[in-house]
Design goal:
The structure is a homotrimer of 373-residue chains. Chain A contains five helices and 16 strands. Chain A has 373 residues and is mostly beta strands. Chain A has one domain: Beta Barrel (Porin). Chain A has a 16-stranded antiparallel beta barrel with strand order 1-2-3-4-5-6-7-8-9-10-11-12-13-14-15-16. The radius of gyration of chain A is 23 Å and the shape is globular.
């Protein structure tokens, strides 16, 4: 039955095999996250609206036993070439992979970078609001990776990618650069990652260390450690992320300072010697197979060494989320949800330079990963 | 035959069922409208060109017996987030629906708003040129609707959506707003619609009333009534649409006044207290099943109450179209067409303030809704 | 078996036929070209990066025995309406065709123009770097063509399309136009093409002549002749392209002069009476079925008759490429490659007006036309 021939009168089984093989290569998803939001910006000035947080088209499949591909592309972002990688920021993923054997797989193309952390690990449609660290990662990059899987419980990945989608001068185009900073000749990011399952899957890891070249002789050293306690109806995930940047890579600190500098007619500089620390804890409980309750807390600091009038960890950010999710269909990746999301950003030291801010949101909505084929 | 199992050796019927179920979920259309145009702008200054009026990708299908989806996305418009709804204007539709039972269906996502009118009811590839009212409706909005179908001849819909894709300040960003106008906290549109078949389908209705919040305490009340006499080879459709806007919602009057105000260095204001009335009549005759002849007439007025130097119904618009359509294939949604389209816009009162204009077009082309899967 | 009926209990063969017919209509490809580049701009200032040169989605198939369609759309270019043709430059192809009989086929929609030349004939993912002529052709245009195939060895095409995607004033919007130049009323391109196989396919042709209307009474006459010696393991392709433009159509000469004019605060004019000549030779050798070696040389000149201080053929461009391609899978359109690409542009005459430039690139990468369905 399996030898598909080009005979003039193929059997029904042969015909079916051809159709099935073609069909198996393609799987289509529409990743959606839609909400009705009640939101304020800290002034108790609430307003309401419908909003689509995410719409990402996805196609993936196996082309042969060993060769596979995946494309994920946002439908609500401009399709414009990145000046470095030639791809649109709308394209999250465009990868091809090959299994050399059970243990070695190579992938190339536009990849999700292999950072650690459990917040980072999820499909973004399941994230109601990222931490500052996750929000500013710029994590879809062109490159290649080798994946080594010694056994089913451990995966080690070494990945090299471009550092950004745009060239140095475009990435930092809204800022003045400190004097003497020049473009790197090898603007790449190197990541080493370990995904592990320990004690019969009770402890799971998403750990990674990374080195990124942001400019000539300017690097960022990153460590991202996601660790999960995984029990049948309860999970506790804890993420710790740290960046030591010679030149502000995440731009969280530089961005918040931008408004201040602009208001004082001071040149808007990229900060040097910036340290970010992020802590995320998320607890989830499933009272039954179709319900999930969660709480999540985030604490993040930014420290800029170079500036005297700015205190250590001058920027502190707090996030506190809680929510209920209901999965109405067993065979559909759909979640109805009601969530509360709060966030506060506080500046220490000469606080009159920067304005604290906070925001609150109550969202009622639907996450649906439609499997359309 | 129906119980699809994961047995190691599925029967041909089981294999076929899996492939068929997957295939049934996806239907793909390319909605196209292509013409060779001879056009002038009223000065008998004719020019020729090929033009693609429409290219909209569409995918839809049933995911389960009760759950369905539909996506329609233009390929010739920027994919950029609307500042209110987060979606691109290129996305016409991105909806998911669920039939609770024979009578109650709920849909959510980016929806075609349920306005009335037969011009509005058609797939836009079949429209050679919209009325001013239809052209300026901004009718693809994020929200939800309940559809009640008491029997096969009547459908009632209640729908709530965002009022626009962009935030208040972005939607009106090209204009000065009259003093005291503020953003609404609930910028939503409420529509109630009746789609009816009467007297064995001889009379068919697409009627709707709507309330839209355009700004704080500024509303638009709309009534859109489409009624059709539907005989075997002859149809006569009549649409009446009326808008009473506290703040110009369609922007037709404000747009035509814009050039004038800009030329006089007067601030370009959004008009308040604007009334639009539109009348559309279309007669169609099928001498045989593959031919259709039509004539269509449009008369539209705009009245701005607030301004003294502008007369009642200061803007009058006339449209007069005629065409022949030929459907060469029974099993393909393809129409070859030859049409004439004329339009005149006249300003009453102090007519030296505004310039009348008119345009003519002869189009030879193809409308084709390609069913690609 | 073939009569698909709507009976309540279709046979397995009937069911399979329905699924197969639907499946046969759609074929999906992802055309990709990904590289790791070492590049310099002539100053021996090398830098490295990953880059995606091409990502084009493609769908095509037969809708009936005689009716076919094809869509090809770039995922890394803006989706914005061309001001003339209404389509995005991201859309390469959106065509529908019909075989009237074995000899006559008509196609319409956005088409690849039927220029001659073997460089031009290839899917762009297989081109590492186009000649200046090929790079600046603007060759995806809306229109229609009649294809006459008297026998399997010869194909003659007559095609009419728009001349550009954008209107005259938009296409030349970055330049001053010479005095007296006006928009054409029929901005069209007419192409006549011959694709031939001679002496049992040993000689193959892609020849075309064309007339393009660029402005009122301003035309470009083009001749593009691609001829190939086609032996079992060795091919030698030679392309000759010539443009005689009343008004610079390719804009290569005008573009290179632009910087100079801008630096001298002289108005940047479009050149009149421009002649382009391009010569391309490519030799390919296959030592085995999975390896291909090639060398390619390009010599191009641009002559501007009108300007005294500019010599005949004032701009000369040289390209010299070599590469190795390896096809690892028999049943996949994948090529791994290592190439060297060099280019030099020299200006003759008053050479202090313009600056010569050159660039070099070594690329290691993958070309993959993924057949995803």
């Amino acid at each position: 039955q399996d030898n598909i021939t080009n005979e003039e009168y193929p059997s029904i089984a042969q015909k079916l095999n051809i159709v099935q093989k073609k069909s198996d290569k393609l799987n289509i998803y529409l990743n959606t996250h839609t909400t009705f939001d009640l939101a304020d910006n800290g002034s108790n000035n609430w307003s309401a609206k419908f909003r689509m947080k995410d719409i990402r088209f996805e196609a993936k499949g196996y082309l042969t036993d060993k060769l596979f591909y995946r494309l994920r592309h946002k439908l609500n972002q401009r399709n414009e070439k990145g000046s470095l990688d030639g791809l649109s920021k709308a394209t999250d993923i465009l990868k091809v992979g090959y299994h050399f054997n059970d243990k070695i797989t190579v992938i190339g193309g536009k990849l999700i970078q292999y950072w650690g952390g459990w917040e980072y690990d999820l499909n973004p449609i399941y994230i109601y609001e990222f931490s500052d660290y996750g929000e500013n990662m710029d994590c879809f990059q062109l490159g290649a990776a080798v994946i080594y899987t010694p056994n089913k419980d451990h995966e080690f990945v070494f990945q090299i990618t471009d550092n950004h989608n745009d060239k140095f001068e475009d990435f930092y185009s809204n800022y003045y650069l400190p004097e003497g900073i020049e473009e790197s000749k090898m603007p790449l990011t190197y990541i080493f990652n370990w995904n592990g399952n320990l004690f019969s899957d009770v402890i799971k890891t998403r750990w990674a260390v990374a080195l990124q070249t942001d400019a000539k002789d300017k690097h960022t050293y990153s460590i991202t450690l996601g660790t999960m306690l995984n029990l049948p109806n309860f999970q506790l995930a804890f993420d710790y992320m740290r960046d030591d940047s010679d030149l502000d890579r995440l731009l969280v600190a530089s961005n918040d300072a931008k408004d201040y500098f602009m208001s004082t007619n001071t040149p808007v500089n990229i900060f040097e010697d910036v340290t970010y620390n992020s802590f995320i804890a998320k607890a989830e409980y499933q009272p039954s197979s179709s319900w999930n309750l969660f709480v999540k807390g985030i604490y993040e600091t930014a420290n800029v060494a170079e500036l005297e009038y700015i205190d250590d960890n001058f920027r502190k950010s707090y996030g506190y989320y809680a929510g209920i999710e209901y999965m109405p269909f067993e065979d559909q990746e759909m979640r109805l949800f009601l969530t509360y999301l709060g966030k506060k950003v506080k500046f220490e030291g000469n606080t009159n330079l920067f304005s604290n801010y906070d925001k609150n949101r109550i969202s009622l909505g639907v996450i649906y990963r439609i499997k359309a084929f």
